[in-house]
Amino acid sequence: MSSLNRELSEDSAFAAGRNSWNRHYHNSVVQPLLTDLYQITMAYAYWKSGKIDDHAVFDLFFRTNPFQGEFTIFAGLEECLKFLDSFHYSETDIEYLKHALPQGIEDEFFEYLSQLTAKDVTLYAIEEGSVAFPRVPLIKVAGPLIIVQLLETTLLTLVNYASLMATNAARYRMVAGKHIHLLEFGLRRAQGPDGGLSASKYSYI
User: Fold this and answer.
1) Residue boundaries of the structural domains of the chain
2) Which of 39, 43, 49, 100 is the 20 to 30 A CA-CA neighbour of 55?
């Protein structure tokens, strides 16, 4: 094998491995407890009212463009899908909730939470990287009321920051023009290591 062919083969293998890792890698911070206590208490209210079989459809949208701009670049969809795919309360999550929630909540509610997954949730979305506008749904989630309620805060944080970064990068590209190389160099000033990696990813988008 020639040196060039060997390098191309190695590059292809690296790219395949990287893409496979990216599809399956899940940020350990993004899990069901990355939410507001309000969402858990809402879930309890629904459960207490016998609404476990109710179905709901939620739209995720924004009201104004960032930076006083005229458009937004939608991003964060991949992380939302990974979150739905892995949604499950662990035993330690349940133990934490038993201490965080008020006394007197029935054990049956915690047992119900421990069995929850997002397998019955359907997510509809525009394509990641698309230009989006205020009050037009970016994501629509349909499924059991309690579960889609529990998804709300996490989906918002995954989409809001990602779309902000992607929109900011697009504005830089428009100003710089098509033939200027732009380098993302924000790790040292980002909000922690995950903020830095996320900023790089969504700037690229």
Assistant:
1) 37-164
2) 100
Q: Higher model confidence: residue 11 or residue 113? A: 113
Buried b (16+ CB within 10 A) or exposed e, 119-149: eebebebeebeeebeeeebbbebebbbbbbb
Which 8-state DSSP code applies to residue 72?
Answer: E
Q: Is pLDDT at 13 greater than 80 in this prediction? A: no
Q: Cα–Cα distance between 104 and 3 in angstroms, integer?
A: 70
Q: Name the DSSP class of 64.
A: S
Answering whether pTM is above 0.90, one says no
Those residues with Cβ within 8 angstroms of residue 125's Cβ, 6 or more apart along the chain or in another chain: 74, 77, 80, 138, 139, 140
> From the CA atom positions of the chain, what is the Rg in Å?
20
Q: Which candidate, 197, 201, 196, 205, places its Cα nearest to that of 173? A: 205
Q: Considering only 10-19, 38-47, 134-143, which range has the smallest mean pLDDT?
A: 10-19
Contact 125, 139 (CB under 8 A): yes
pLDDT tens for each residue of 168-203: 999 999 999 999 999 988 888 888 778 888 888 899
CB contact at 8 A, 14 and 181:
no
